[in-house]
Amino acid sequence: MRRGCVVAALLVLLAAPAPAPAQGSPPDAPPPPAPAQGPPPGAPPALAAVRTLLARASREAPAIENAVTQAAYLMNIAELQARAGDADGARKTVAALRSPGLKAMGLLRLAQGQAAAGDAAGILRTIEQVKGADTAKTMALVAAAQARARDASAAVKTATAIQSPGWRNATLREIAMVQRDTGDLEGALRTAALLENPTAKLDTFRDVAVAYARLGDAKGVDETTVAAFRVIPDANIWPAIAEAWAERGDVKGALQSAVPIVDPHSRDRTLGRIAAAQATAGDLPAALQTIASIQGEPRRLAAIRDVAIAQAQAGDVTGALLTAGRLPHANLRSAALRGIVEAQAKAGDFAGALRTAGTMPDGNDMNLARRAIALAQTRAGDGAAALSTAGAAPREGDRLRLAADIAVGQAEAGDLAGARQTASAIPDRSLRDATGFRILIEQAKRGDTSGVLAWAAAQAAPDQKVRYLFDAASTIMEATQRERRPFETAPRP
User: Rounded mean pLDDT of 458-482?
Assistant: First the structure.
């Protein structure tokens, strides 16, 4: 297709009258505002830091001698700049690519970033520059952007006009997942009904049913599962729903959803989650009764471990220790004790956590438990106690790694001076330097990029300069912008 035809066709589509209310907002709803380019005044400092670091990386990348490395960095930078709302900067980054073919690839990466930012109009401007752009992929990106801009009606209209069945189904599922993530579960169900691929439709109904269960909406779960079984009558969707009820603490809903589960492995795993929910609610006899119905011994013992941890998280440390004592194998008992230690440390019972850690039979689990205690002490503002906990580790390497984690924990808590002091005492230069850079990233999250910029400037090789700048920017972006990227169907943790 000639360049411009894709954009012209999409502009005609986007200019068409809005569809019926069943696919989106009511007719009298105002149109959504155009997505902003870049962070508005007063935007979070972390986002401004990302843009600053990427702008410097974009200027440094053309000096990289290896053509493959240079192109890879420029494309990665351009996509992340667009995700951060800096489409103008991304276009400048793409312009530095050396060939028309690479520029076209870079523009497509830019468009993917714009889709994540909800910039449908920007995607059209970007794709207009790509000769022979794939119409289906372009429309999919536009629809994803429209969904993120909370214009599900327009997104569905764009998606249903896609000629490729594969892209059309992928795009409709993407829209439904955005609706799920933003709480529009009824809209997600309407979109799911438009899917033609049975597997995609079933997966979407299941994901929406899980979302309803997490909200405690039994009616929503029932209606969604009925729709799912119309697609595939024997679909194995109950484990995910039962586990969602259990996560919410609704034991009754979880047990009801577990009844239809036929697969023994899925049933055992689900019963284990239910037992943990019962223990959290303080009903240990019911939890043990549920565990007794688990058929496979390894899964039954794993459930006992999880119940012990759930008891500790609910504040019943004494009961948790007794439950952990039921475990016959040292590795499972040690894993249960580690979970108990983590719960004690989170609750601020550091002395109790240290006592429990001292009873652990497995050295690796003990090190992980010690780390949990030290980091909790750090978050509580007691760096000296945290370092004392770290100093009890028998191996020097473990002590040094714990000290590095404590330093980063201090930086995360805002104690940059304490973090630098802790890091400076690490004798291993490589670990000390790596820790120092992690501290600079925490500093940049608060809007001060001077440390990362200086660190990058001190590197001799251009690829190292860009690596540090891009790694810092992507780390900050992933830590502060938790939404799914387009066409990632699983929710971000």
Answer: 93
